[in-house]
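Page 47, continued from p. 46.
Same chain as before, 124 aa.
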Amino acid sequence: MDISRDFLQPGQIVSLEHGDRNLYAEVIQFVVSRQLCWVRPLLMVTLIPESPLITDLRDASDLLWTANLFRPALDTEVITFLSQVLAKEPKTEPDLAAKQELNQFIHQLWQAYQDSAESHNFGF
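Result:
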């Protein structure tokens, strides 16, 4: 997806999708010269048949990621998820399971991105 640099503004909510999971994050800065986006994770939504599983990632580390993999998040898709996360009491200790889930998601997304880039480079 080709995202206009005019679109990626601080405070914008964007999504990274892979498989049945969506990572929603807030744009901190768009690095035009490198086509990278510095984002702060907000939540991960795992789509399961019963109801979505929402993981609070507000305590997770920021990411610097290639901007062309992000898509703008629609208000209507993210407001319900954010309201569920914001309604909960803040955690007193870091959620290691949530951070591990984010790490696994990023690893899987990176691997898929690398595999896709290799197949395009070799004409497969």
